[in-house]
Specification:
It contains 5 helices and 4 strands, in the order ββββααααα. With 158 residues, the protein is α+β, with helices and mostly antiparallel strands. Helix 1 crosses helix 4 and helix 2 packs antiparallel against helix 4. It is globular. Bound molecules: magnesium ion. Magnesium ion binds next to helix 2 and helix 4. Magnesium ion (MG) binds next to helix 2 and helix 4.
């Protein structure tokens, strides 16, 4: 698959291989568990993966590094804000047309994709930590937005 989103870290969906290997000196039968962490980098498009799958990817990445201890709502909200600022920094001092131009191709676009991914990762981590179903939250908020901004009254203006 090409041209999609890179999801790094071990894949909780990927098979875990359990290899019975030897009896130790104490006579306890040991198993070596091999998870192909290094190889578990998949490129997937939006219509090929669910938000639930992405949440699992982020959760596994965090868990494997024992980073949940740092994932308070405050820390994650701050980290999210920093990543949004990094996205904004790419357009600092550009006028509106220049900003559109640099997003067509090139380094700024590539950097923006990285920042978008960082933002999404922290957003999903925030949802994981706080047991938030982001799809449910989004649809409930869209329902409020539709009521607050009826299309016939807010067509073409705020
Ligand atoms: Mg970043």
């Amino acid at each position: 698959m090409a041209g999609g989103q890179v999801v790094a870290g071990s894949n909780p969906v990927a098979p875990t291989y359990i290899l019975p290997c030897f009896f130790s000196e104490s006579g306890v039968f040991c198993f070596w568990v091999f998870r192909f962490i290094a190889c578990n980098i998949y490129i997937m498009k939006d219509n090929e993966i669910t938000i639930g799958d992405l949440k699992k990817q982020v959760d596994a990445f965090v868990d494997e590094r024992d980073w949940k201890q740092f994932h308070s709502p405050k820390n994650l909200a701050m980290a999210l804000s920093v990543e949004v600022s990094e996205l904004m920094e790419l357009f600092q001092w550009l006028d509106l047309e220049q900003a559109k131009e640099v997003m067509k191709s090139g380094k700024v676009r590539e950097d923006a994709l990285d920042e978008i991914a960082d933002i999404f990762i922290y957003l999903l981590a925030f949802c994981n930590t706080n047991k938030i179903d982001i799809s449910d939250a989004l649809m409930k908020k869209m329902k409020k937005n539709i009521k607050k901004y009826p299309a016939d009254k807010f067509n073409g203006h705020f």
